[in-house]
């Protein structure tokens, strides 16, 4: 092989490895279990996050766990998810876009979805079980 061909092959390999590294960096995601908490007076027949996971949530109950939702491993400002749910009889589907608060890869334990009594939905990535000081739901919101 001539020196010019060797140089061309080396340059192509360098360019390809750069392109592949860029693809891998853009595709870093993490799969999280989805845990639901229903603080309302009504059963939730089924719920999902971005069309994934979900389960039945009895009124005033917690831990409707399902697998999995995929999120980028690095938070980007303005992130949101779509939470969809039905009533007790899996009828009357509703959907809401909910902002995801900042998180780090170290937070990745579960994706919590809280259906609050006031009609709000609060979501976040957490590795904490409900109600320690680090959990981002206030005592008033958390009453079941």
Provide an overview of this structure.
The chain is α+β, with helices and mostly antiparallel strands and 144 residues long. The chain has one domain (30-142): Immunoglobulin-like (Sandwich), CATH 2.60.40. 19% of the residues lie in helices and 34% in strands. The chain has two helices and seven strands; from the N terminus they run αβββββββα. The chain has helices at residues 3-26, 139-142, and strands at residues 29-38, 47-49, 61-72, 80-85, 94-99, 110-115, 121-126. The strands form two sheets. It has a four-stranded mixed sheet, with no helix packed on it. A three-stranded antiparallel sheet has the order 2-4-5, with no helix packed on it. The model is unreliable at 3-26 (pLDDT under 50).
Topology of this protein?
Elements: H1 3-26, E1 29-38, E2 47-49, E3 61-72, E4 80-85, E5 94-99, E6 110-115, E7 121-126, H2 139-142
Parallel strand pairs: 1-6
Antiparallel strand pairs: 1-3, 2-4, 4-5, 6-7
The mean pLDDT is 77
What is the rounded Rg?
21 Å
Write out the strand line-up for the largest beta sheet, numbering strands in chain order: 3-1-6-7
Which architecture per CATH? Sandwich
| End-to-end CA span | 74 Å
What is the fold named in CATH at topology level?
Immunoglobulin-like
State the shape: globular
Give the low-confidence spans: 3-26
Order of helices and strands: HEEEEEEEH
Number of strands: 7
CATH class value = Mainly Beta
Helical stretch tally: 2
Secondary-structure-based class equals alpha+beta
Helix content bin: 10-25%
State the oligomer. Answer: single chain
Overall structural domain count: 1
